[in-house]
Write a structure and sequence with these properties.
A hairpin with a 2-residue loop joins strand 18 and strand 19. It contains 10 helices and 25 strands. With about 425 residues, the protein is α/β, with parallel strands linked by helices. The strands form 8 sheets. The protein has a 5-stranded parallel sheet with strand order 6-3-2-10-25. A 5-stranded parallel sheet has the order 12-21-13-14-17. It has 2 domains: about 200 residues, FAD/NAD(P)-binding domain; about 210 residues, no CATH class. The two termini are about 20 Å apart.
Length: about 425
Amino acid sequence: MGTRAEESRTGIVDVVVIGAGHSGLAMSHCLAAQGIEHVVLERGQVANSWRRERWDSLRLLTPNWLTRLPGFAYSGDDPDGYMSMDEVVTFIAAYARATKAPVRTETTVTSVEPHAEGYSVTTNRGSWRCRAVVLASGGFNKATVPAIGASLPAHITQLTPLQYRNPKQLEPGGVLVVGASSTGLQLADEIQRAGHPVTLAVGEHVRLPRVYRGRDIQWWMLSAGVLDARFDAVDDLGRARGVASPQLIGSRERQIMDLNALTSGGARLVGRVAGFRDGTLQFSGSLRNVCALADLKMERLLAALDDWADPEGHGASIDPPERFAPTIVPEKPCLGLSLNSGEIRTVLWATGFQPDYSWLHVPVLDRKGMLRHEGGVAAASGLYVMGLPFLRRRKSSFLHGAEDDARELSEHLMNYLAALPARRATRVAS
């Protein structure tokens, strides 16, 4: 990476990559392998989101042996462990150094606009002209908070996972965690262990065991080809891209983290948040059905994995098939909770994330502000995207999923550039 003086230089390149997280750096490596001149612009430091926008105890949901990027892989002595955030940052920073990625740090992109020969990228440190742009700023820039949050009483503290760091920042008293994906369960578990009474509002979720038949569930998902399912081979791509992250936790003990584990520690389950009226938060009565559906889908997946294992000849090397107890739900679930009683002091909205394209002035966003693209090729010539859920494969949003996506998209980009007239070598003045 260059010096500060080099980072402030502006000019003309073939490709501008926005974001120096794992996706942007994977694309940079593949572009370099194709001989494509490019620059990587990063608003903070390398792996900035991992450094600044994650809670303290978070670990990867994938084991270390699966941690890899193009031309680079985990080489430590704990292959079955799960990286902490500091370890993830160290890994990605080492990758940037090893690949000599042309990163310009502390360079915030404020505008991307069409230009006669491609795109104009404006930053706080000057402008770039390029023929193609790769948006690798991530799919988790903004926390999604339901509109109902604006109606809650002022004395209720509201947080998102991007703001939460650890239980010490919480006021004494009960915490309502809204959302039962991996984020919601991990935060509910940590907050409960810190001594706070926890209520978890449960909507649609994906239940998975951490270990199945003696092997990490990610081994099964990878080996059986589940993670390699392609975007152009699923019936309902929109729904597939909106599926919640599975209920997993990256613990050294490889413990199961599901609703049963949480309620055994004292947590209370309620249905999804349905409304707020006269000081009372209202919950859906569908809790039992939602949990039963998640149980059913897990059982179907495990059965499919069993079917795959036997013909493949793995039966002798793995443990016998197993099944798990159904999710236990209250006989009479709570349908309303007063926020004026003092029981709940904090609401933590673990209700999902979305990208932030407020600086993208290209007509490629739908009415919800989401990027229109076909497997990472955006609906505008020369515009690409990396790092979104199910971008090209089910594994796209995982760290190891960037490799195949970057390789294929860099090839598409190379062919796109090859069809354009040769660009002028003139450099824009600094």
